[in-house]
Design brief:
The protein folds into 4 domains: 82 residues, no CATH class; 193 residues, P-loop containing nucleotide triphosphate hydrolases (Rossmann fold, 3-Layer(aba) Sandwich), CATH 3.40.50.300; 234 residues, no CATH class; 189 residues, no CATH class. The radius of gyration is 27 Å and the shape is globular. Helix 6 crosses helix 9, helix 9 packs antiparallel against helix 11 and helix 20 packs antiparallel against helix 21. Strands 7-8-6-9-5-10-4-11-12-13 form a 10-stranded mixed sheet, with helices on both faces. Strand 1 and strand 2 form a beta hairpin. With 768 residues, the protein is of the alpha/beta class. About 5% of the residues have low confidence. It is built from 24 helices and 16 strands. The two termini are 52 Å apart.
Length: 768
């Protein structure tokens, strides 16, 4: 098939003198069609029309010459074309899976390690459990005057936050999501809003969907504002009409009565009324586009012959989505919103922003000796306070690292040297028991201690239970620390004192431990019971702790106990001389069981087979996942994590096998503790290697199949895509040993055994 040639054109940015370029990329995938031809809009960084025209001419030379249509040609292009042109064309052609954000933060503000006398503590917990409040208590920040980090009863922590408690000035490094990722999510929001218009939704609902992404990670209303919310320095006006759905259904952090001294001032030159007018105009445009294209989409589908209304609706949604994304009026909405977002960065009054060649922010850095001033500046990137909507940059942040002389108010004596790592909550997905993501699994392996923060009033629900399971089977149970918050809410006529309340909470964990005993053996249960012996129980920690109150004295003593527990996690037991021996044949059974569980789950997710305990996912979410694999930018979308699911299934089954060695080299261990130490070391070594092997099976090898699945369009493509993913990708690359016919029938089995064998050699364990 002959290559399709595109041309670029320049446009003047709305309300500005500068120029941008718009073109379709001959290689990058279009989110609407799944085929090459992604729409790209990039700023040219000039207000001179002649210079802009010259840059467009250069870009058209790249677009017309196929010899430049590969990432390897970038070096040659850099010697011939302007750097802005090269960046616009080549950025995004190579996978952005390994983000530079962590590397940038490490370069600008390195994290200290155990060699420097620090302990890295990873906090895990469900939404609302209070892990960020625990962080506040360690830092000694006030919930009203400091408000850092931000908390709420809703989902608050949505970016990686690393906090170094140490001497020196207050320093911060903030990194941001790439521009293209923001563009894709803005387009997703516009598409969702348009489909809501198709259903006859009111303006308020359309506006809400337009500003906030469905997975609640990209809440652009924080940046652009919401009708009815005004900055604290301005009067708050009520919304008019019948848009009752404009009221915020999330809890602003801590409540209305606040000391605003710690809040960032409004951004200079930002007109929220103009932004809201732009949003209103977008709502009208989307309604018009839906009216214009709906009949055409139905004509293409010929839906009159179809009886299943659910099928008809899925097909109509997909076809209309594709048509809308190909309409320049739809794309103009995304462009205008992106320009409004960029204005917020240019209006920042403090700090230093480093930008890429297209002027998109890479990092924001700042340093000061003034604590209050520092917190005001950083809050712009972490806050979720509703009266500041329209002036916050929180949803655009993919990571933040701060350092400074923070200290707990309740601690007397030397301040602990801690690195606190707080990330997105375990319950930040609709499926709260979703497998631990690949980045979190890596963070668990690298941490000195893993603090599981759970709600004592509702302990060990699906998400924390899943986390404990993952920590156990990765050999990291000796890092685990249980922290039960909301202990003040544990009440009952049968609970007479603190001891009764504590035992009541621990009794709720018994079912989990009993299940682990049945599934993984007595050693695993006993190991977790020892971790529960050092569990802490915290009450009323959403305010400064008062040693004159019972809850204050309790929480202070428990925090001190927690510090001792963190220090003790670095005391790792030594491996003895004895080593277990395992039979490889048992690993075959383990791999078969894991692969069977994986296919059972994902055939249900894809709608291929029905499972009572697994819900079918909507086609838009499957396609969003498909796009990330096709572009090789991620192995997950929200709670859809096939790579993580496969990793956890394999870890579980292999961990069970490790509990049953066939014999020992040297003398058998004197007690189970020696075997537990070896199993933990071996499990860690296996877990570290599994992610790379799974990436090869699910991302690298089948990338063309992922792209083919994403290319599919038209009548029935939703269902064809699901079957293609199930058969051509999952079944072929993760075959069930002895069951699934595949040319790679034994390859997957051998790959897993190779992982276990390499790990065994590292620990000195023998496989036969």
């Amino acid at each position: 098939m002959a290559a399709r040639y595109y041309t670029a054109s320049k446009v003047r940015d709305k309300g500005r003198e500068r120029y941008s370029v718009i073109f379709r990329h001959p290689i990058r995938l279009d989110p609407a069609t799944g085929k090459p031809g992604r729409r790209v809009r990039r700023g040219l960084g000039t207000s001179d029309e002649a210079e802009a025209e010259e840059l467009v001419t250069q870009l058209n030379m790249l677009l017309s010459d196929e010899s430049y249509w590969s990432a390897t040609a970038r070096t040659n292009a850099e010697g011939r074309f302007d750097g802005r042109v090269v960046s616009a064309f080549f950025d995004g052609m190579t996978p952005a899976r390994e983000k530079d954000s962590a590397r940038l933060r490490e370069k600008l503000l390195p994290l200290p390690s155990a060699d420097d006398g620090y302990r890295r503590v990873l906090l895990l917990g469900t939404t609302g459990a209070g892990k960020t409040t625990v962080v506040r208590q360690f830092l000694g920040t006030d919930p009203e005057s400091d408000r850092f980090p931000s908390t709420s009863t809703a989902k608050t922590t949505v970016a990686d936050m690393e906090i170094v408690m140490g001497p020196g000035p207050f320093r911060a490094v903030v990194t941001f999501f790439p521009r293209d990722e923001i563009v894709d999510h803005l387009a997703d929001c516009a598409s969702k809003a348009a489909l809501a218009a198709l259903d006859g939704a009111g303006d308020g609902e359309i506006r809400r969907l337009l500003l906030d992404h469905e997975n609640q990670r990209f809440r652009f209303s924080y940046v652009l504002g919401r009708r009815g919310h005004r900055p604290v320095a301005l009067a708050v006006s009520s919304s008019s009409g019948d848009d009752f759905d404009e009221f915020d259904d999330e809890e602003p952090d801590e409540g209305a009565a606040q000391d605003f001294s710690a809040q960032p001032a409004g951004l200079v030159g930002i007109d929220l009324d103009a932004t809201m007018a732009l949003v209103d105009e977008a709502v009208v445009t989307l309604r018009d586009l839906v009216k214009e294209h709906e009949d055409y989409a139905r004509t293409i589908l010929d839906t009159n012959d179809r009886e299943d209304e659910r099928v008809v609706r899925e097909l109509l949604d997909e076809e209309l989505d594709k048509i809308l994304r190909g309409d320049e009026r739809f794309n103009a909405i995304v462009d205008f919103f992106l320009e409004e977002i960029e204005k917020r960065f240019y209006a920042l009054p403090i700090g230093t922003i480093k930008r890429d060649q297209q002027a998109w922010p890479l990092t924001w850095t700042w340093e000061t000796d003034e604590r209050a001033e520092f917190l005001r500046g950083v809050n712009r990137f972490t806050s979720n306070y509703a009266p500041l909507f329209g002036h916050l940059l929180t949803p655009l942040v993919d990571g933040i690292r701060v350092a400074g002389p923070f200290a707990p108010l309740w601690l007397e004596g030397e301040v602990p040297r801690l690195v606190l790592i707080d990330g997105e909550g375990l319950g930040h997905t609709p499926k709260s028991a979703a497998a631990i993501s690949t980045p979190v699994a890596k963070a668990i392996d690298e941490a000195d201690a893993v603090l599981l923060v759970d709600n004592a009033a509702m302990p060990v629900q699906a998400a924390p239970a899943s986390a404990v399971r993952s920590i156990l089977t990765s050999g990291n149970a000796d890092k685990l620390l249980f922290c039960f918050t909301h202990f003040d809410e544990v009440k009952g006529d049968n609970l007479r004192g603190l001891k009764d309340r504590r035992n009541h909470v621990l009794a709720s964990v018994e079912n989990l431990l009993s299940n682990f005993r049945i599934e993984f053996g007595v050693r695993s249960e006993l190991m977790l019971r020892r971790r529960l012996d050092v569990a802490v129980f915290l009450a009323d920690i959403d305010k400064p702790l008062d040693p004159d109150t019972q809850s204050g004295r309790l929480s202070i003593s428990q925090f001190k106990k927690l510090l001792s527990g963190i220090e003790a996690t670095t005391e790792r037991p030594e491996l003895g001389p004895a080593r277990p021996v395992y039979d490889k044949a048992n690993l075959v059974l383990a791999v078969a069981a894991a692969a069977t569980s994986f296919h059972r789950r994902w055939n249900a997710v894809l709608g291929i087979q029905r499972q009572a305990d697994v819900a079918k996912e909507h086609w838009t979410r499957i396609k969003a996942l498909n796009r990330r694999f096709a572009e090789d930018t991620s192995d997950q979308y929200d709670s859809l994590r096939p790579a993580s699911d496969l990793r956890e299934f394999l870890k579980d089954e292999i961990y069970k096998t490790l509990q049953r060695p066939v014999e020992w080299t040297g003398d058998s261990p004197a007690d189970d503790e020696a075997l537990t130490v070896v199993i933990n070391e071996l499990s860690q070594a296996i877990a570290r290697r599994l992610s790379a092997a799974i990436r090869d099976r699910l991302s690298v090898r089948p990338v063309r199949e992922w792209q083919h699945a994403y290319y599919l369009s038209g009548s029935g493509s939703t269902f064809v895509r699901a079957r293609h993913i199930s058969n051509a990708i999952f079944a072929r690359n993760v075959p069930i040993p002895g069951v699934t016919p595949s040319p790679d029938h034994n390859d997957f089995l051998h790959a897993v055994i190779a992982v276990v064998n390499d790990a065994a050699e590292e620990v000195g364990v023998e496989l036969r």
